[in-house]
Amino acid sequence: MKDLIVLVADKNMEHTVRGLLQRPQALDVRAIDAEIFVHPRHGPGCANEAHHFLRPFASSYRYALVLFDHDGSGREGTAPNALADEVKQRLLANGWPGRAEAIALAPELEVWVWSDSPQVAACLGWAERQPPLRDWLAATGLWPADRAKPANPKHAMEAALRQARKPRSSAIYRDLASKVSLRGHNEPAFLRFSHALRTWFPPRP
Length: 205
Prior knowledge:
Blueprint: E1 2-8, H1 11-21, H2 24-27, E2 34-38, H3 42-54, E3 61-69, H4 80-92, E4 100-105, H5 118-123, H6 133-139, H7 153-164, H8 170-179, H9 188-200
Helix pairs in contact: 1-8, 3-4
């Protein structure tokens, strides 16, 4: 059996997870043998049909993980944690008892991008630009100084890339995930993600 199957909503999320799984020490886990699939119906598919998609793989993988954006899931009326719990319960009842977790990122994946790490600016094309990225985002109202994260993290990321004239691509997400420090990362969906991996794949003695 392989360690882990991951079902995600899009290519950006796939590249993010690949980048993170390349850093087992940063996640405080052992090396993980994982395969990642993108649901053909993206967020709504993950939110409503993950158990159907993953049921045929239950005898081939030890654990299953589902990640999708809360925004665009078609289930925005359900709170993110409640929606993730609902998806998880369907997985547990369809071939994955005690072996599955679901993550609904609120509002979306880009909430994982923003931190104090200088690598964020470097990955977004701001390493040599003035003013610094954080100051520019504050001046434009995209990330007020008194907030831990931008109110609209996806819009803030897209605006920063446009200003730096850096084309948006899935490779940026993998770059961020593989380089930005995970220390002190306290976003709730990320904590749920990392807790599941540490529980399933603790570091080897």
